[in-house]
Amino acid sequence: xxxxxxxxxxxxxxxxxxxxxxxxxxxxxxxxxxxxxxxxxxxxxxxxxxxxxxxxxxxxxxxxxxxxxxxxxxxxxxxxxxxxxxxxxxxxxxxxxxxxxxxxxxxxxxxxxxxxxxxxxxxxxxxxxxxxxxxxxxxxxxxxxxxxxxxxxxxxxxxxxxxxxxxxxxxxxxxxxxxxxxxxxxxxxxxxxxxxxxxxxxxxxxxxxxxxxxxxxxxxxxxxxxxxxxxxxxxxxxxxxxxxxxxxxxxxxxxxxxxxxxxxxxxxxxxxxxxxxxxxxxxxxxxxxxxxxxxxxxxxxxxxxxxxxxxxxxxxxxxxxxxxxxxxxxxxxxxxxxxxxxxxxxxxxxxxxxxxxxxxxxxxxxxxxxxxxxxxxxxxxxxxxxxxxxxxxxxxxxxxxx
Amino acid sequence: xxxxxxxxxxxxxxxxxxxxxxxxxxxxxxxxxxxxxxxxxxxxxxxxxxxxxxxxxxxxxxxxxxxxxxxxxxxxxxxxxxxxxxxxxxxxxxxxxxxxxxxxxxxxxxxxxxxxxxxxxxxxxxxxxxxxxxxxxxxxxxxxxxxxxxxxxxxxxxxxxxxxxxxxxxxxxxxxxxxxxxxxxxxxxxxxxxxxxxxxxxxxxxxxxxxxxxxxxxxxxxxxxxxxxxxxxxxxxxxxxxxxxxxxxxxxxxxxxxxxxxxxxxxxxxxxxxxxxxxxxxxxxxxxxxxxxxxxxxxxxxxxxxxxxxxxxxxxxxxxxxxxxxxxxxxxxxxxxxxxxxxxxxxxxxxxxxxxxxxxxxxxxxxxxxxxxxxxxxxxxxxxxxxxx
Lengths: 402, 389
What we know:
The complex is a heterodimer. By secondary structure, chain A is an alpha/beta fold. Chain A is 48% helix and 10% strand. Chain A has a single domain (10-260, 304-396), classed as TIM Barrel (Alpha-Beta Barrel). Chain A has helices at residues 7-10, 12-23, 33-41, 62-67, 86-103, 114-123, 142-150, 181-193, 204-213, 237-240, 243-246, 256-259, 261-276, 286-298, 306-320, 347-356, 361-389, 397-401, and strands at 26-31, 70-76, 108-110, 126-133, 153-157, 196-198, 218-220, 249-252, 325-327. In chain A, strands 1, 2, 3, 4, 5, 6, 7, 8 and 9 form a nine-stranded parallel β-sheet that branches. In chain A, helix 8 (181-193) links the parallel strand 5 and strand 6. In chain A, helix 3 packs across helix 5 (86-103). The longest helix of chain A is centred in the C-terminal third of the chain and has 29 residues, at 361-389. Chain A is globular and about 55 Å long. In chain B, the strands form three sheets. In chain B, strands 1, 2, 3, 4, 5 and 8 form a six-stranded parallel β-sheet that branches. Chain B is globular, with a radius of gyration of 20 Å. In chain B, helix 7 (182-190) packs parallel to helix 8. The longest helix of chain B has 29 residues, at 348-376. Chain B is an alpha/beta fold. Chain B has a single domain, classed as TIM Barrel, CATH 3.20.20. At the A-B interface, helix 5 and helix 7 of A face helix 5 and helix 7 of B.
């Protein structure tokens, strides 16, 4: 009676979590696989075939998505904001996602609408959507925004780590103090298209301005609660409180340096170390990872756990309500992850933890699937209405912001 | 219809109008003297050049165009419309050469809308310009649902025409729009791009196609995007003719033997085009073809003889800023040209190929080559540094 399987796999909660996820799988708001493929193998998809085991190189492959109970993924078409050629690079990222979908038709299904997401769930395929990460991807052009929508992009984060001319980032100095007039026009045009306004990465001022400007529900594709861990990438309570009225959803992220205070401090030191060695602090190439590992040997990394993330969800639930939560892991976009959530197969551990904390099946179905699908559907409804009443905008920053 | 007129409309792009027919030296070569032999009675007795086309011939031209509308290979509308604050193509837009009523009058069944890119190197500037014009074309098409319909394939083009709409095809765009990125090409194709001009980039320069350039031609073939060689260097044109698995097009090229314009094709290239079953779309511009309907017809005759009746088509080049021959001033004028060709003895079969059939064949060829290529080729991930190093 002494040989037991590891506690986790024998846990009744974990089995229960897997059952729940089979019915209402995870809609994940943010996965940077396309960027990892660009950086590691320059889009040679055969060299990092996600049909096989890629655990040596990536957080993501098809088998682990399946094991993790993922039913829909917003693939990030992120590009660097500190280099020219953002539009070109964004289109290359979009092409990468389209190719991934084409290569794996049994597992991935292109999804453009909430109905497509439901259809994918019914077929047992993973609905594949796209999200652009940063307003730099449209180069101040609303026509370009519309063509990104045409190509399948269904959310745009208004900024990445740097300000754009019309919106402030959480991790940059205050610029226009939230959204400029053109920034509000971008939000309006996104509403008209049915592209979700994503407020991860933006400054709190921008969050508030966007909530004022948007007539459709907004999302936070990968952000946690600032009251639990004080990092600018997280969402302050006054913003979370506005989600019920807006109808939007905050998708909790796992990134330790945003969710665990000790990790926040550690990450700051690690980033400084990366820059000191001449790398971009988000670099995840082999050489950069070596530098990172050397740092880690001398400075033990504070470890976040499933419970850290659950603490955020408990708090966000208190403030925003169960109808306004979701999950956005940021896999393949961050070097480290909490214990138990090490790759995309980890979601059941989080669900098991929440079951142990007394979350009901209905609550969990909302968290994993229903809220995110509802929000995309609501954005479509708003778009149908706006398109029937308003014309596409061709405003420019020069016209509106002078 | 072709009215009697005492003087030629002056053009801005060329010098003095051609001398009257009677005083003009006979150019002596094939098509022209052939025409003179075939239809001597139809040249006018008066010294002014104003061919009297019998009314029944004009009627025949209209009837023929009703059955075989014009597939026009080049329109400058995207750039021209971008300059206007307001326009209504449905009711008529007098500041333009093209609007829906005149497209109907001219029996234009399909129209390529060229994307105009800023001069100089590509990069985000060119990409954004292309995206903005694609956006504009889509908005215009959506705003005129009774007149226009976007088409991406041969089948959709025919379908639009059968629904009484003018099919709008996106392109040609200069290759700077896709820069050095096959992925970018795939995205623009996904947005509807149907023709790319191989000029203005390092991989399709004066020296011809580089290895990367050939890879891009393969990718164009795989996608079903037409390879446009008007404005390409002779070396690029020659290599693309050899490499492309789908018929290539020259969206704006006439005969260099008749008029020495750099975009016009030398006879030898026309012969190669015939062998490759490509398509030469003859522009209706004073600069490239000449100031009168007869000059355009001369070019068409010449291209038909050398490249063959299956390799010649029409390219209005309206709204591109070019000056047009007399009586071919806007998109409604195609019947004048067809009447002239009827007078010259073009058979209805050849005219049907000229106006519609050949463009359809090339579009179908591109679609077919794409389906075949997609069975054996993966999307290209080539980078210019790997191939052209």
